Amino acid sequence: MDLEHKFARFGDGLSVSEDAVIEGYASLFGQVDQGSDVVQRGAYQSSLDGLAKAGQRVKMLWQHDPAQPIGVWDEVREDDKGLWVKGRLLESTQKGREAAELIRAGAMDGLSIGYRTKRAVKNDKGQRVLTELELWEVSLVTFPMLPSARVAAKGSDPEAENTWRSIAEVFNDARQELART
């Protein structure tokens, strides 16, 4: 099984504190993403329980690059809405400082999970319903796949949002095309 990625923008509750603590939703339940996947409530629980039992944490990476950890997730849990994360960007690293500034400026607002699908079913709409996932990492990313899970930034421009969403769709289509070849 290959490692898969699922993108989401930070949930409405995102906050970035002065000491670079970030929190928000990495995944929202019941919402169809641009890859026609839907994560079902409870899909992460087995993985989270296994990590806790082993004394391990979900990794915080920059753009899914395992060579670029940028912080630590202190809390990762499921709630009624989705997969909620809270962690600290390590501003003692160059990439951690950059990530903190990009988030504060509103230039970076996406999270993406790296996972393996353990169980999934197709629904009557042809969508893949993910019922059990092995969560490996949560990355800060530029372009999210789940547009509805987003942060409300001060001074947001809806027209600019639509432009960024269109650009993200082009990148997603290109990524899918490359995966076919």
From TrEMBL:
> Could you tell me the Gene Ontology terms of the biological process aspect for this record?
proteolysis
Q: Which of UniProt's keywords are assigned here? A: Hydrolase, Protease, Viral release from host cell
One family from Pfam that matches here is Peptidase_S78
Q: Name one GO molecular function term.
A: peptidase activity
Q: Where is the Prohead serine protease domain?
A: 19-155
Q: Does the record carry Hydrolase as a key word?
A: yes
Q: What is this protein called?
A: Prohead serine protease domain-containing protein
Naturally occurring in which organism (per UniProt):
Ruegeria halocynthiae
